[in-house]
Amino acid sequence: MISVSETTVTCKRKKKREIHGGTRTLLYRVWSTMKDRCLNPMSEHYSDYGGRGIVVCDEWTHSFSVFRQWAIDKGYGPKLEIDRKDNDGPYSPENCQWIKHGENCRNKRSNIRLTAWAETKILKEWSRDSRCQIGYGGLYKRFQEGAMTPEEMIATPSPERNPMVRLTSEQIAEIKRRAIVGTVGGDRRSPIGLGNRGNTKELAKEFGVNRSRIASIAQMK
User: pTM to 2 decimals?
Assistant: First the structure.
């Protein structure tokens, strides 16, 4: 004979088991991995989530159906990824949204954000900005050193880059003649390609321009 208390326990256990029919779906995998990195200390990514206090709200933790309904209501699609608006906040309806993969990459903590001229971008984006006078590697180095303001980091030309020098027609003719003939150091090799680096390097230094400019002048007809 089953007692009343035993029946109650059985009912409670049955109530905890949610039947949703979504176990094999991509969305279920999103939900499962979200919980794993926040709740499972053995997870590979736990230190970046649960280990630093990121949690999953109770309603999502205990119910895939609730999470699925929220996802559908918010326009979920197979090419979208879940994103937390506040990177230090929880996985919850108020703090989450669906965005494209590229946007999610920009939101990662590993991306450094820099604010200059009242605009905030990650370093990669600043390195492609028309105001940037240095490559990404140099910009990152300046950020690490911390000796410049954000505007100075971006707008200060790289010391390795020669400024645009306006050459006279006589100078261009001289560069063209000497690069083609190869009179610098008695070098008579072709000015283009690996065989004549010394020639273009010395001419670039003498006339204050880049070696690529010397090469382009040498090819002029």
Answer: 0.43
